[in-house]
């Protein structure tokens, strides 16, 4: 029973993890399809859908710039400037402007910000759940993760999310990618898990067959000396 129970658990685990990776691949394909079909919206009044291509006209609030810490791009270490932006209708948006190389220095970073009315275009990302944070989020003008509550603005941000700048004044080298792991990699993981499940099934059946063929030990009665 121990043999069957152990290997059965491995088979079920492999099948379940393979199915999970298969579903993740399907989710990634749907996500990339939504990005490809995302609308291009100019100065939206309502909250735009995640992945939309937005066009905004207005001016940066340069003095409110903070920096997303610990970014890497092409083997370099740096930060990503996060600058609030007031559009021509008075709504406030957060703009992630790209990668700024700083190296290992922990000095307070700074970046030049265009003045006056400019036109920006980029990809909108709706704020969602983020990984747990250990310790304070803000250290000086650096943030460990994007959190709109780090800014005390009046009025506050128009919508929960931020614009990843792709074109326009103030744009730096783009580092953000909407999908880190492609669907093909998830499919590869699924096949690996199912292969391990198949191997465990074969081992379970072959081992059980050998155990069934092996003869049971015969007990020899002990001889007692007559008195």
UniProtKB/TrEMBL annotation:
<dbReference type="Pfam" id="PF02104">
    <property type="entry name" value="SURF1"/>
</dbReference>
<keyword id="KW-1003">Cell membrane</keyword>
<comment type="similarity">
    <text>Belongs to the SURF1 family.</text>
</comment>
<protein>
    <recommendedName>
        <fullName>SURF1-like protein</fullName>
    </recommendedName>
</protein>
<keyword id="KW-0472">Membrane</keyword>
<dbReference type="InterPro" id="IPR002994">
    <property type="entry name" value="Surf1/Shy1"/>
</dbReference>
């Amino acid at each position: 029973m121990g043999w069957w129970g152990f290997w059965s658990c491995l088979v079920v685990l492999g099948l379940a993890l393979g199915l999970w990776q298969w579903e993740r691949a399907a989710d990634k394909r749907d996500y990339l399809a939504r990005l490809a079909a995302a609308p291009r919206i100019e100065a939206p009044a309502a909250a735009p859908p995640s992945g939309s291509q937005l066009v905004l006209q207005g001016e940066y609030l340069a003095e409110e710039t903070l920096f997303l810490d610990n970014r890497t791009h092409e083997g370099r270490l740096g930060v990503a400037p996060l600058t609030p932006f007031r559009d021509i209708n008075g709504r406030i948006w957060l703009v992630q402007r790209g990668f700024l190389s700083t190296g290992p220095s922990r000095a307070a970073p700074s970046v030049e910000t265009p003045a006056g009315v400019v036109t920006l275009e980029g990809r909108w990302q709706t704020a969602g759940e983020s990984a747990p944070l250990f310790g304070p989020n803000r250290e000086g003008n650096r943030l460990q993760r994007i959190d709109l509550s780090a800014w005390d603005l009046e009025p506050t941000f128009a919508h929960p999310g931020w614009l990843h700048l792709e074109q326009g004044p103030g744009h730096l080298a783009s580092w953000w990618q909407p999908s880190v792991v492609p669907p093909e990699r998830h499919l590869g993981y699924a096949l690996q898990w199912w292969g391990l499940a198949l191997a465990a099934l074969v081992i379970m059946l072959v081992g059980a067959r050998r155990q069934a063929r092996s003869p049971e030990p015969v007990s020899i009665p002990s001889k007692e000396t007559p008195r």
